[in-house]
From TrEMBL:
CDD domains: NUDIX_Hydrolase. Gene3D superfamilies: Nucleoside Triphosphate Pyrophosphohydrolase. Residues 61-201 form the Nudix hydrolase domain. SUPFAM superfamilies: Nudix (SSF55811). Coiled coil: none annotated. The keyword Hydrolase applies. GO terms for molecular function: hydrolase activity. It comes from the Bacteria. Keywords: Hydrolase. This is NUDIX hydrolase.
Length: 204
């Protein structure tokens, strides 16, 4: 079970095949919260088994991405970004990059870059390092508005903000704000609401 312990992944980068191996390991060792999540995990693993390049933006029509929901448990709030392409309030996240040594590292990097909060840490499984909270598969036009939609196989983590954290909006966001657990903004989607509910429970 995921606990409220949190950590910052180490800084040494790994080669691309090691990132692929880490993604497989992270998904194989993760237990979904319900049958739908288990099926998604199996689909992600099948994708990675078929595609050695399955973590990269260039892998079409689908690729694995990583995201982090930034939570301030003491204040009972989450930090959300208004995504310029999707037009929804969402958690921080995006594509894996060559310098990422793990899915957790990719999620943490995205969280730090898009929130401006350097002291984020990820929730962990006791003694085993950061663990996903949920999976979400969705369609997005990340290759450009004139290009066909492709599929993001998103692996979602929970990032805990230090007390008194101050956010700083990035160029990748139209807006960046804190919202109470029961005061989520519109427009958003059910996937974000489910992720907030999981993060709230795990950090209670």
């Amino acid at each position: 079970m995921t606990t409220a312990d949190h950590t910052t992944p180490q800084a040494d980068a790994l080669p691309a095949d090691a990132l692929h191996a880490d993604a497989v390991r992270a998904l194989e060792s993760w237990a979904g919260t319900d049958a739908a999540q288990e099926r998604l995990r199996d689909d992600y693993l099948a994708h990675l088994a078929e595609r050695p390049d399955g973590l990269w933006r260039s892998c079409l029509p689908a690729h694995v991405t990583a995201s982090a929901l930034v939570i301030d448990p003491a204040a009972g709030r989450v930090l959300l970004t208004l995504h310029p392409k999707v037009g929804l309030w969402l958690q921080m996240g995006g594509h894996c990059e060559p310098g990422d040594r793990s899915l957790a590292a990719a999620a943490l990097r995205e969280g730090v870059e898009e929130s401006g909060i350097a002291g984020l840490t990820l929730l962990t499984v006791a003694g085993e390092g950061p663990a996903p909270a949920r999976l979400d598969r969705h369609q997005v036009r990340c290759a450009g508005k004139d290009r066909p939609e492709n599929t993001h196989l998103d692996v979602q983590y929970i990032a805990v903000a230090p007390p008194g954290a101050r956010e700083l909006i990035s160029e990748e966001s139209l807006d960046l704000r804190w919202f109470g657990y029961d005061e989520l903004p519109e427009p958003t989607d059910d996937a974000l609401r489910r992720l907030v509910a999981v993060g709230r429970a795990l950090t209670a």
